[in-house]
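Dear colleague,

Thank you for sharing your sequence with our group. We've completed the structure prediction you requested, and as agreed, I am returning the results in plain text so they can be pasted directly into your records. Please verify that the sequence below matches your submission; if there's any discrepancy, let me know and we will rerun it promptly.
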Amino acid sequence: MYRERIEKLAPGYDPAHVEAWMRNEHCVLDAMSREKFASEVKIACATIDEAGLIMSDRMAELEGLRPKKRAS
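Please find the predicted structure tokens below.
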């Protein structure tokens, strides 16, 4: 639902990662103003940079934005 907005605000970042970190802090994203949403996207991108892609993939799985990976 938020993919297009996130892609415009954070090109180069996986929208599922960004949304997952945003949802980790805010259960409801609909209530955010455009400015607040943009600010939270920036914070999520900084979190992705710090946490890394493996942790961000896991967060996306936990938030239901990616299918869970099967153990090999």
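Summary note from our side: Residues 3-62 form one domain.

Kind regards,
the structure core
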